[in-house]
Structures are given as C-alpha cells and as structure tokens.
Amino acid sequence: MNAYIIGFVVPLVIYLFKNAKSRKRRGLPADVAGDPGFAVRNHRVTSPMTSAWEGVTTLVELFERACREHHHRLLLGTRELISREIETSSDGRSFEKLHLGEYKWITYGTVFESVTSFASGLAKLGHVREERAAIFAETREEWFIALQACFRRNVTVVTIYASLGEEALCHSLNETEVATVICGRKELKSLVNIAGQLDSVKRVICIDNDVPSDASSAQHRWTITSFSDVEKLGRENPIEADLPLSADVAVIMYTSGSTGLPKGVMMTHGNILATVSAVMTIVPNLGPKDVYLAYLPMAHILELIAENLIASVGGCIGYGTPLTLTDTSNKVKKGTKGDASALSPTVMAAVPAILDRVRDGVFKKVNAKGGLSKQLFDLAYTRRLKAINGSWFGAWGLEKFLWNFLVFKKIQAILGGRIRFILCGGAPLSGDTQRFINICLGAPIGQGYGLTETCAGGSFSDFDDTSVGRVGPPIPCSYIKLIDWPEGGYSTTDSPMPRGEIVIGGPNITLGYFKNEEKTRESYKVDERGIRWFYTGDVGRFHADGCLEIIDRKKDIVKLQHGEYVSLGKVEAAILGSPFVDNIMLYADSFQSYCVALVAVSRPALEEWASKQGIAYSDISELCGKEEAVKEVHASLVKEAKKARLEKFEIPAKIKLLSDPWTPETGLVTAALKIKRDIIRKTFQEELSKLYGK
C-alpha cells in the first residue's frame, strides 16, 4: 500500500509542481505613458529599478563598495604563458599553439590599488576629465583596471572592438576626439597604420611592455607609455579622485556597425548600473563563491555588464579567449588545459555560436564512438529531455544524478565541471542548443534580449523557465511595450497573443548616438512621465505568462549567429551589378553564420555564357539547375561583393538560381520594382530551407 501511495503521489506532486511553474506569471501588465500599446513589467518590481544597493548611484561607488567588503578576496585572474609554439600542418600551413599554466590571481584590495594608481598616473600624464580615453584591446585584466581608473577621474571611455577595421577605428577615434588610447601591442600596430589620419590622439598607453619600434612618439606626435609605467607614475604622485554623477557619460560604445560606419552609443553611469542591478536580482544566488570565465569582447555591452556584475558581488573573474576556451580549442597545445578546465567556472556568459560549437563537438564525438557508449548517451539524453519537457518519468532527482554520473560528467568537464548558470545573449539561441545545455551541462541557461542602446537590458528568462524560443519577461529595470505596426500586419489586439514593435523603457535606456541627433530623435522618445523609450525595430509577442518572443524585424538588418549585422539591402545593391542578375534577394537566418540568396537570373547573359561553354540544356529552368551555372553566377556575385569591399559574412555562401522573372504581375515586386521581401521569402520558403540544409 505504501509503495502504491508513493508511486502515485510522488509523480502527482512533480506534475502539479511543473504545471504550477508553467502557470507562473513572470511579467505583469504595466501602466505606462507614451505611445499607446501593450506594456509589461517584471513581477518582482512595481516600477523600474535604478540600483540594487542603497546609496550607490554610479559604477565608481559600486566598485569601491565591493573592494571594501571583499578586500582580501580574489578578483582578477590571468593564466601564465609557459610557451608559444608554431605547428605546421601537412598542407604547409602554420598554426600558433599556446601552453598556458595555472591562473595567477590578484585580490580586490590589490586591484583597487592598481585602479587608483592608474587613475592618478593618467592625470599626471596630462589627461583631463574633459578629454576622452579609448580602450582598444582584447579582453584582459588591464582592460577592467583601465575602465575603473577612468571612471574614478570621471573620464568617458570610448570602447572599440579589437577586431574593428582601420576605417571604422579611425572614424571612432576622430568622431569622439579621443586624447588617450589604451591598447595592446597587437592593436598598437593598427593604430600606427592610421596615425597620419588621427586628429586628436596625444597619448598612447601600451598594456604590453614590449612597445614596437615603429610606434615611437616623435614620429606620430603622441607620447607613448607602458601600462606599468603609468601605474608607477600614479603611485609616486597620488591624486584625489574626481568622482562622477549618475547622469555623467561613462561609456561611448561603438557597435560593430549594421550599415556603414559604426555608431557610438552614449551610456551614463546610471544606465549601466540599472542593468547590473536588475541582472543581479534575477541570477540565482550570485555571490562571492562564483567564478566567472571572461572571454567575450569587453567592448560588447554583454561582457561589460557581466564583469561589473561579478565584481559587485565579490566573485572572481578569470580571463580567457575564444581560441583557448576548451582543451581542444584551436590555440591550445595538445595535452594541455584550456581556460575552462584550468578555471572551473560556475558562471559564464556566452553567445549562441560558442554553445553551438560545444554541442556539435559533443555529438560528433558520440557518433564517432558508436556502440554501447552511443546507446547509453541516447537513452540518457531521451530520458532527461522527457523530464525537462514535463514527463513524469525521468524527472526525479535521483535519476538525474545517475545520468550525470554515468554519462554527462565527462561532457560537463569540457567547461570545467562546475557550471551552474549560463547567461546567453547577442543572437537567438536555438531550442536544440538550449536543451543540450540543460541536459548535458545540467545547468539552466538565461536567454536575454537587449541592445547596446538599452545597455543590454530588455528581457531575460528566469532560471526555472525551461521553455524554448522565448527571451523571458522584462528585467526589473525595464518596461517592454508592444506598439502596433500596421504595415507589417502586427497589432496589440491580435489573438491569441498581442504583437507589435518592441519598445523598451526605463533607467537603462541610453542617451542616444554620439553626434547624431537625427538618428537619436528617430529611435528615442521621452514620455510625459519622464520615462525614456528606445524603439528597437524588432517585432515580438507576449505569451500569457508575460514572457517575450521575438518574431520579426521591421528593417532589413539581420544579426547572424556570431553577432555580425548584415544589411540585406546594402548587400543586394552591391551584387546586383553582376551581369547574370536580373533581381536578387539576400536572406539571412539569425540561427546561422552565413547568408544565402535567391537570384532571378538575366536569361540572355546566362544563355550566352552557356553557349560559349558548350553546355547543353533543354530550357532555362534546366540551365538554372546545373551545378556549373550556379558556380559561375556565384563567382560573379563574389567578384562584385569584393569590388564593393563587403565583409566575408555579408557575401552569400549559397545561392538558388530562379528562371522566372520577378514582375509586379507575379506579386514579387512593387510597381516601382522594389522587392517584396516577405512575400518572396514565403513563396520560396522551401528553396531557402534547402540552401540551409534543412
């Protein structure tokens, strides 16, 4: 009888618990001003959060508070470089391999001393608060120290991707009139290449001690100093802090650029603090025991928020790189540890491309091994998948423990074996990869939605929400409102869910674009209650529990899997010059790392080429299907793309040739012969799916 009761009651309790979670209201309707729409707030707050810490209004105050409370705890860690080797493959290509040692740590107290010394040294060099400083380097501990030091002198920091091209780099530095550039040795080479085009740079601080000889001061009209020398100068000549206010601009962050040159987004201390505070309240039990692996670019708002967040709660930050992340990463010497193995982090931020790579690598190894090992993995994966999806069976903690011990422990070791939470952002995360993380790494993954313009703040999925395809409710510092977009056919009165353009409001909304008032007025509004709103151009819908799902984009700009923006119209205009193209539509799937294209061919040009090549065909449709024709047209598109200096990710990797012309009569173009993107996408959905191998 007891066994019968246990066998019935326990699954029933689990079932009711799961259904209670599914009915949980995560976002609640909000009363807001501004444009009419359907607004939602986080269930934890009644109004947007500005700070989670009493009396803290700036990032300087937040960092000082953390350093006082956690003075003797470890804060920043960097791996020792044991050796750097060059390996040559069988085809003659050379690859750099690194042998990295254990992490070397410095405490909160030591970091604070470095920050105050660097801040004093910066002032002693002659940098005044009215001047801006740029950090142009890979993610590393000096990046964090320099950022905090600039904040202590109320110096606005211009953040620039280390991978940014020279034209965009020159534009960013000149537009913001940067006086001091803090960079690594590698980035200094790029700076030297454009030295003659820089208008305002007076000082260069090189993080690495071995300054290249061609970067000499006299040659480029700037003084050049090593990072360590600036710290030493500051220690010997201490200067009082010049503390900022909440409304002061902390960062001008240059995006990777969706069209043309990148735009600088102006973020105040209050903006960034609001997002840090909100995320701190929704990541479960974040505190001094947490170890964070930092490897994403700190010039990206996701990484900047994450590092400031971990430092605020007394956690440790260990630095790595995407190319040394795991034991099998490209730059890791065989037989040595990757960053995750050496650090054993508990928390990570990730972009979908990194997680996809881990998933694909695991499945490839499992399939290659085959036999009983694969059968056991498949059984374990199926059982855990059923549990997560709400099945009674396999949901018990004992079974989860058993599968982790027998099957998933080795997979969890890839990222150090201690991951308990992953923050994911930057691009859409596929449901398959989300389930892989839940099952194989045994960790919840919080998928976030936000933009540089909202300081990464927007929405973030709760740790106990196992649904896929959604990005959670608004975070506690944000309202999210949907407004009607009649042209796209989206309305807040749609059934079964309200739909519309996503507008985000709250203290995390940035001031706008630097020296671009027109674009700022176009994208930002302040309502009658003083709430600032950003119009994202994305289209979403709210589920009954208040969670957001992204379903479309108003403009033809798409973010690929690795975070690059592709302007479909710009690329189409560039490659339309191919003689084989009558019309073209570029298509990009945010879950993929490349673009594809549908090409309505110029029949005379293609037939003339086929005749010269002696290719036989019965009709134009057959010719469009021939591999030789597809290769020739693709080569022509690549040629046009290179002439237009398009990036590699903007060039369509695969194409489909279409024999029928696009005319107003077919409904595929307007009377002015502009393509109807959505109609073409729906008409040729099958062809597009095949191009992506679906």
From TrEMBL:
GO terms for cellular component: endoplasmic reticulum; membrane. One of its GO terms (molecular function) is long-chain fatty acid-CoA ligase activity. It comes from the Eukaryota. Residues 98-514 form the AMP-dependent synthetase/ligase domain. PANTHER family: BACTERIAL LONG-CHAIN FATTY ACID COA SYNTHETASE, LONG-CHAIN-FATTY-ACID--COA LIGASE. This is Long chain acyl-CoA synthetase chloroplastic-like. It comes from Trifolium pratense.
